[in-house]
Structures
1.
Amino acid sequence: MGTAYLRKPVMPKQKDREISLALQGGGAHGAFTWGVLDRLIEEPGLTIKAITATSAGATNAVAFAAGLAQGGEDGAKASLERYWRTISEKGAPFSAFSWSNSPFAALPFGPFQAAMAFTSIASPYEFNPFDINPLRDALDEAIDFEAVHAAPIDLFLSATNVETGRVKVFQDGEISRDAVLASACLPQTFRAVEINGSAYWDGGYMGNPSLFPLIYAKAPRDVLLVLLNPISRLGVPRRVPEIMDRLNEISFNASLIGELRAIAFVQKLLDDGMLKEPLVKKYRRLTIHAIRGGQVLRDLSLQTKYDTSWTFLTHLRDKGRAEAERWLGSCSKYLGTGDSSVDLQKEFLHD
């Protein structure tokens, strides 16, 4: 970043403000991203041209795209609300199962703790023989995937190939209900999603979200990260739930930090003039911006990622709207200037 980060931005014309979004996964915390999208849609002269997303981010992406195709900006807002209302009605993954007959019924555990304990000794192939999945039902009810394909936006949805351990990015005609389910498939809770002979788990393990598709696509170079997991957290966790929460955060941030490190390295080479023609033409500069939902939500536990009550979801939506409003007021001036509004080295890479 260097001095480029410190330059005073030159305001572009509003009509030129096109952005790409990178949406993290995070279960019910994805309602925060709903709020961010809801506010960005309203901003005059700002156009979302591409979205790369994982898990809950992928569900927001297809809801946004379907609504955009069906009714423009108003349609996108309505589609997002319809999707999250459906999620609230269908309930969290564990709500579909009865734990009253489980070995943990007599123990002083809540439903979430019982579910976590149960999934540590039984796989979804054993405790969910009928493959019940509330997310599948919600997608069937709320999302028109033909409309998703017709939307004037590029989508890139990440999943993890179970056998190869590599990231799979679904795009264009590959995007389907099953692709979204694959991107959001937590292996402790759901069976791997099979698509064209390959099995997939949650994309968060290998791309949360994947940024490289934006480098190779003709997508806007201004990339707005919408983060749901805190990168840093002070203090060493000592209780089991705290340890599990922090492990979850670190695991689902690892792939993103790796990509940001690579982007920062390449941009430093470009800034320092160390890449010469024709090699320099092979690299594409991305300017990075961020809405740090992980910091806003850092006091919420892992358990709340399964809370699909409407009161909680709309509370997160309102927080997302507020953070998007704050970002628009302080950082949107960098869009179209060639400068990032965050210092990658300082904020994401340095210890």
Note: The longest strand covers residues 46-54.
2.
Amino acid sequence: MLENELLYDDGKHRFVFLGWEEREEEIVQTNQFLILDNEEGILLDPGGAHIFPRVLSNISEVIDPSKIRYIFYSHQDPDVTSGIALWLSVCENAHIYISSLWVRFLPHFGVYDARRIIPIPDGGMEIKLSSGNKLEILPAHFLHSVGNFNLYDPVAKILFSGDIGAAVFKKGERYRYVEDFDRHVALMEGFHKRYMVSNVAIKKWVEMVSTRKIEVMAPQHGAVFKGENVRKFLEWFKNLRCGIDELSSIYNK
């Protein structure tokens, strides 16, 4: 497996990009992230059962899984949540943050103990950490899920954007960080045009996140954006026609 990488580290607070599989597989490529705040762990979109052993191994290199206090799920898709029962079994002290819309679906993944679930209201909420630091759960509805959230870390100034900013790599051509934004657009455009619901939802989201200072944007698929490429993405995304904006072209094919 490829090694973990630190996206932020001030000695007390770390934001870890968990490593990938060494070999590319014929499944949807996903990214997993771990926040460590004074050794208190917050796991972001840990993924499905297929990648559970690799992600657990990567996590175990930096923290005892029993110290993971929270697991955040951006939405309900299987590449995000289908390993939830496995994660609850090894992260025995963890609670789950997930949209209130998806709580009723969790028994289909084998999760019946509602005491470990914290439903996220539509407007989002904060996660208060033992250190006094806070993480912001921000609404990102209809981008693409009807109950969709991002997580902003104001200490690291990193936005975990879920499927927003996702890219689909060609086999043998994956990379961890966006270097050439214009080239990267070709890997994002098809996904965003089809999976995001409308430009109305996009503009609301861009307006909201633009009030935060974001130095890194980390999506659940594809490559991580840093610095000026974050700004370039927001400008590109703000003007994108997608979903219902493009219904005529879909039905007229």
Note: The chain has a mean pLDDT of 93.
3.
Amino acid sequence: MEQLLHYCWKHKMWPLGGLETTDGRVVEVIDPGLHNKNAGPDFFNAKVKINGTLWVGNIEIHDKSSDWYVHGHEKDTHYNNVVLHVVEVADRDIQTQEGNFVPQMVLQVPDTVHENYAELLRTDAYPPCYRIIPNLTRLMVHSWMAALQTERLEQKTVAISERARQTGGSWEDAFFITLARNYGFGINGDAFEEWARHIPLQAVGKHRDDLFQIEAIFMGQAGLLELEAVPERYQKDALNEGYFAKLRNEYQYLAHKFSLEPMDFKLWRFLRLRPQNFPHIRISQLANLYYQRKASLSALADCKDMLALANLLQTQVTPYWSTHYTFGSESIRNMKHLSPGTINLLIINTAVPMLFAYGRHTMREELCDRAFDFLEQLKAENNHIIRMWQEVGLDVKSAGDSQALIQLKREYCDKRDCLRCRIGYEYLKKGKSL
């Protein structure tokens, strides 16, 4: 398997001595080079000695020598600087586009690596590397978790930067869209992002001092002020109460004024959704947050500690929603403040990535540092992914740890990408005793 051959070359998993080319010249690997994940040779700037002569150039790796021609490398100038062709089976000589013969070396993947990799792929237990986790050093775990935490933030930075690009470079809009998406708490995340893109913040800003008008635009753009969006059994009560009709009339006026088009209300999901997560409640909370000028990137950047951050994100519903979960269906009075757990999730999934992304964009290192500090101060998330890692022996203390382990499962374990994982590396090189 070519992937394993790449892996063994990158991590120098070969016999300590006895490396030689197919024509008998002694090979000494000084530096395997930099792994190239794009088009071109597999490793750049490698350093190898062949019969005592130092060669600096690129390395190409294949299962068989003849794959060189299968892939058309003999016609590609990018492969003229290949100084060594590493293969598992040497079945023919090869030449570059310039007509030069390339030295070749047969490299066998160690049997233990083959067996351990096959074991990782076929193991039903999750994670498949569970047996080695108790034997990992604290230093190795800590360094890998730190790398995963950064990787996850960088991944979120890409999504946030793309939102800023799509809104004409507005990072304020990107923050609002990111905040709204995370108000969907997974189930309605896509719908909330779609909704936020339907909110013309410049237009809403002209009515920022009127909470009722803000809520009218927010509810209207969500499609929730269409009578068909109200469950049939509540439609009559919704109309009789008056608030629904009042909001709808106000929205129709504002929609005409600003040429607004609502999203399709059918995008909202209610099945198996707790009432406090209904779109009506979350949108009312966001309307209040916006009215209080808290849904602001500049306000977020001014938060220096966890208390200030929690206060910034705290909000409640408008009066009507203190006794309702949907239009026309009355409930016990509750101002529906955000719970501490909900605040923590918003900090982890919105505030921290936003600070990190905006810090990168503006080259304000203090914002990036603050993002990491907030993750370390927050308690770890408690979900099935985190409990799984705890059960196999990993210590999870902070939100930084839990974010790292979520990244590990989704980007490595779920994809069976053990060859890029540091725990996978430890598993592949282990002996048969474990």
Note: The longest strand covers residues 53-64.
